[in-house]
UniProtKB/TrEMBL annotation:
Residues 85-134 are annotated as: Disordered. The keyword Cell membrane applies. It is a single-pass membrane protein. Pfam families: YajC. The lineage of its organism: Bacteria, Bacillati, Actinomycetota, Actinomycetes, Pseudonocardiales. This is Preprotein translocase subunit YajC.
Length: 134
C-alpha cells in the first residue's frame, strides 16, 4: 500500500493543474463566443490587431463589417474581434446653475476658436479615442 501512495500523489499533483487549466480555457472560449454573438451595429470594438472600429453590419455568421472611419467600411472575420469598448465619456461637468452654464459655453467657444487657429497651421495628429488613456 505504501508503494502506491507516492505515484498516486504525483498523478494528483500533475492532474489537478491540467483539469483547472482546461476549465479556464473552456470558460474563456465561451466568453469569446458570447461576445461575438452579441455584436450589434453601433457597438465600438477592438480587433485582435488593435484596430478600433464601429460595427456597421453583423448579419453574417462568419464575417462582420466594421466602420474604421466615416464612410470606410471593411469586412473582418468575427473571430478577429477581441473586445467591446465603452465610449470614453467627456470629462465636462454637468451643471444646472446658469452662471456655471455661461462659463462652460464661453470656454467651449474659446476652445472652438483655438481649434480653428490650430487647423490653419497645418496637419494635426488625432488624439487617442479609446480606453480613456491620457
Amino acid at each position: 500500500m505504501e508503494g502506491l501512495f507516492l505515484p498516486l500523489l504525483l498523478m494528483l499533483v500533475v492532474a489537478i493543474p491540467l483539469v483547472m487549466g482546461t476549465r479556464k480555457q473552456k470558460r474563456m472560449m465561451a466568453q469569446q463566443q458570447e461576445l461575438q454573438n452579441s455584436l450589434a451595429p453601433g457597438d465600438r470594438v477592438m480587433t485582435t490587431s488593435g484596430l478600433y472600429a464601429t460595427v456597421a453590419d453583423a448579419s453574417d455568421e462568419t464575417t462582420i463589417d466594421l466602420e474604421i472611419a466615416d464612410g470606410v467600411v471593411t469586412t473582418w472575420l468575427r473571430q478577429a474581434v477581441r473586445e467591446k469598448i465603452n465610449p470614453v465619456a467627456d470629462d465636462e461637468p454637468a451643471s444646472d446653475e446658469e452662471g456655471d452654464t455661461a462659463l462652460v459655453e464661453d470656454s467651449t467657444v474659446a476652445e472652438a476658436d483655438e481649434k480653428e487657429t490650430e487647423a490653419a497651421k497645418g496637419p494635426q495628429v488625432a488624439p487617442p479615442l479609446e480606453h480613456g488613456k491620457k
